[in-house]
Specification:
mainly alpha, rod-shaped, single chain, hpI Integrase, Chain A, three-stranded antiparallel beta sheet, 17 helices
Length: about 375
């Protein structure tokens, strides 16, 4: 007859007078009862478990068994098992364990962009946005950030769609960077819906552009002319040097480290732009004077435009009047460093042909263009 796995013995205790002893898992275990009948019943149940499930089943803690049963019930509607759930969570823990704090990831991205010689302004503005995001999740690793975290945070900013999407763009850049470093498996920002932008392009009238140029401070004329008649972005002009303007070839070379798109492009110079730039022509040196933003505000105020200035007014005026006058969308897209789709989306408003002709005939008065200049070999 096989030896019983459980033994019932008397125990000296005021209330618990019987004990059941077993040694299934390599060490002695005891359970106490008030009556011998309770002890015998327990032994019978455990012997049946041994018979049906083996030693592993009999030694499985009751609380853990109940937890497993409840977990299995919760997974059943999804067609998943406890093993599936454990595998998924272990992968998550492994991912988080190999990650870095969100704050550290941001600092490393900023340093990476500095090392890549990105513009100071770009790096600074990206840093401001990402550090603001970090402040909302100070204790999380970058692998713990989900699409829901990003979506709710962006919604909480309560900004205009365009501004919200600049935050979205920089967050996406951060997570793409993290993926390349194996700090997270995927970019959660991709699945966060972008804010819907309503494209509204505001432009200046021909008279407003003419008045702005003719009343502007001498230092700011090249800045305004390049925006109005070459369609350069403000940041591109701010980074530009006179050596990039080839008067002989009538071309402006926008370097890839200056362009928003990160690609080099050549912008053709129209006759009226050459007329405005020629009196200020130099061999080299920055085009923008010191404190140019303050000077620009003063110029716009002097022209009565400061309070009603549309966003990107000079660049959008260039695009609108260029399309009306020359009717060439691919060429305009190339000049502006955009796609034809962007041109179609932004410049739908028809501009009268007579206004377009007037725009491209805005030239400096004779006294302006006859100013003495320094002669030198063409750049």
């Amino acid at each position: 007859m096989p030896r019983p796995h459980y033994r019932v013995k008397k125990y000296k205790h005021p209330r618990l007078k019987w004990v059941v002893r077993s040694k299934l898992s390599g060490r002695w275990e005891r359970k106490f009862f008030e009556t011998k009948g309770d002890a015998d019943t327990y032994v019978q149940l455990k012997e049946n478990e041994l018979l049906n499930q083996g030693k592993e089943g009999a030694t499985f803690p009751t609380a853990l068994r109940v937890e497993a049963q409840l977990g299995n019930e919760r997974l059943r509607p999804f067609g998943k098992t406890l093993t599936n759930a454990v595998d998924h969570y272990v992968r998550y823990l492994e991912e988080v364990g190999g990650s870095v704090p969100l704050k550290d990831a941001v600092e490393k991205l900023i340093q990476d962009r500095k090392d890549a010689k990105c513009s100071d302004r770009y790096v600074y503005e990206m840093g401001l946005k990402l550090k603001k995001f970090c402040a909302s999740y100070p204790d999380k690793s970058i692998a713990e950030i989900t699409t829901e975290h990003i979506a709710s945070w962006l919604a909480g900013l309560r900004l205009k769609p365009t501004s919200t999407n600049t935050f979205h763009r920089d967050l996406s850049t951060l997570f793409e960077f993290a993926v390349t470093r194996n700090w997270c498996k995927a970019n959660p920002a991709i699945r966060a819906t972008k804010a819907k932008e309503v494209v509204t392009v505001g432009i200046l009238t021909v008279d407003e552009v003419e008045k702005l140029l003719k009343t502007a401070s001498k230092k700011m004329v090249p800045f305004i002319a390049l925006g109005a008649f070459a369609g350069l972005r403000r940041a591109e002009i701010e980074r530009m040097d006179w050596s990039q303007i080839n008067f002989r070839a009538r071309e402006i070379h926008v370097q890839k480290d200056q362009a928003k798109t990160g690609s080099h492009r050549i912008v053709a110079m129209k006759p009226n732009l050459i007329a405005w730039l020629t009196p200020y022509r130099k061999l080299r040196g920055p085009i923008c004077p010191e404190m140019h933003r303050v000077l620009f505000d003063q110029d716009r105020d002097r022209a009565g435009l400061l309070e009603k200035w549309p966003s990107n007014a000079l660049r959008h005026s260039y695009g609108s009047y260029h399309l009306s006058r020359f009717q060439n969308r691919p060429e305009l897209a190339e000049q502006m460093g955009n796609s034809v789709k962007v041109i179609n989306d932004h410049y739908r408003k028809p501009i009268p042909r007579k206004d377009a002709r007037r725009y491209w005939n805005i030239k400096p008065p004779p006294r302006h263009s006859s100013r003495t200049i320094v002669q030198f070999a063409a750049a």
